[in-house]
Write a structure and sequence with these properties.
Blueprint: E1 8-14, H1 22-33, E2 37-43, H2 49-58, E3 63-66, E4 80-81, H3 83-88, E5 93-97, E6 100-104, H4 107-117, E7 127-131, H5 135-146, E8 151-156, H6 159-172, E9 176-181, H7 184-191, E10 196-199, E11 225-228, H8 237-244, E12 248-250, H9 253-268, H10 274-286
Parallel strand pairs: 1-2, 1-3, 4-6, 7-8, 7-10, 8-9, 10-11, 11-12
Antiparallel strand pairs: 3-5, 5-6
This protein binds NADP nicotinamide-adenine-dinucleotide phosphate (NAP).
């Protein structure tokens, strides 16, 4: 990109941000769209978060992605939250408003888009089993509940977090909920009642590729649809086992691309070239220099 007096700046704040796929994905889209925009990674230490958020607004930055560890801590520094960000309690995208930054969360909608477009699955009326109760799990759980999932079961190592998520879900949406411990026997039973299993645990991620979520591959059988939010490696060993058993599967990359495309649509107001973003993300993930990380 040729930087001029007119160049619009967007970027990513996190700590660290060095391994993010987002700059490659967004800058590829700007090149294709021939937009005079640039996407820049900004490493922001936790103690500078408030200053950074105010500074980015003052500098006229057009939009910001937010990644680990700032997704929850950023909330007090924003003018307001979208209903999705409010529900999930986490922000991954900032959009400018006259009064300040508006915090959005595109992870849940990104998952839904990926599920429909990549896996060809309709979440309405389906029974979900989600592994994990962290930020990604919450975003997915609220998104599927919002579009009419019949049941959302949540399994987590720290069970009270699964229980808290289930309470929050059922107070807001009419789905059935169930909180479970992250134990093999429980999960082997629970999986038989699920249509769609989602791994939102950081297990099997590069470099610890031998780890697996505690749902044994032998219980992953059709017609179960299996999604793994981990996108490095693609697929994880666990997801590869589900595919080998004949399950329909989806890795984490389509969601990563969709959440980025949604952010870019909000910032630019134009229809974004999703295929270009996807190719750039695939290349960045498979690049030898890439060593994992969020966003
Ligand atoms: P997070 O908020 O830190 O949550 C981590 C979750 O994993 C918690 O439920 C935690 O359980 C559990 N956990 C961590 N280490 C564990 C272990 N050794 N054994 C059992 N459980 C463990 O993280 P997140 O942001 O939700 O991210 C989770 C995963 O999703 C990551 O792999 C991330 O890369 C991926 N992700 C992908 C996308 C995408 O677009 N594809 C988007 C967001 C995240 P406790 O509550 O017990 O600590």
């Amino acid at each position: 990109v040729k930087i001029t007096g007119e160049t619009a700046v967007v970027g990513l704040i996190g700590w660290p941000v060095g391994h993010s796929v987002s700059p490659a994905m967004h800058n590829a889209a700007f090149a294709r769209l021939e937009l005079n925009w640039v996407y820049v990674p900004f490493p922001v230490p936790p103690e500078r978060l408030g200053q950074a958020v105010a500074g980015l607004f003052a500098l006229g930055v057009r939009g910001v992605n937010v990644t680990i560890p700032h997704k929850e801590a950023i909330r007090p520094f924003l003018a307001r939250l979208s209903p999705e960000a409010e529900e999930v309690g986490a922000v991954n995208t900032l959009v400018r408003d006259t009064a300040g930054w508006v915090g959005h969360n595109t992870d849940g909608e990104g998952f839904l888009r990926a599920l429909k477009e990549e896996a060809g699955v309709d979440p309405a009326g389906a029974s979900f089993l989600i592994l994990g109760a962290g930020g990604a799990a919450k975003a997915v759980a609220f998104a599927v509940a919002r579009v009419g999932a019949a049941k959302v079961a949540v399994a987590n190592r720290t069970v009270f977090r699964a229980e808290a998520l289930c309470r929050a879900l059922s107070s807001r949406w009419p789905c059935r909920v169930e909180a479970l411990p992250l134990e093999e026997a429980e999960l082997s039973r629970a999986v038989s009642g699920a249509d769609i299993l989602v791994n939102a645990l950081p297990l099997g991620m590069h470099p610890r590729v031998e780890e697996m979520p505690p749902v044994p591959p032998e219980v992953l059988k059709p017609p179960l649809v299996v999604c793994d939010l981990v996108y490095n490696p693609r697929p994880t060993r666990w997801l590869a086992a589900a595919t080998a058993n004949g399950c329909r599967t989806m890795d984490g990359l389509p969601m990563l691309v969709a959440q980025g495309a949604l952010a870019l649509e909000m910032w630019t107001g134009v229809k974004v070239p999703v295929e270009v973003m996807r190719r750039a993300a695939e290349e960045a993930v498979s690049g030898a220099a890439y060593a994992g990380g969020g966003g």
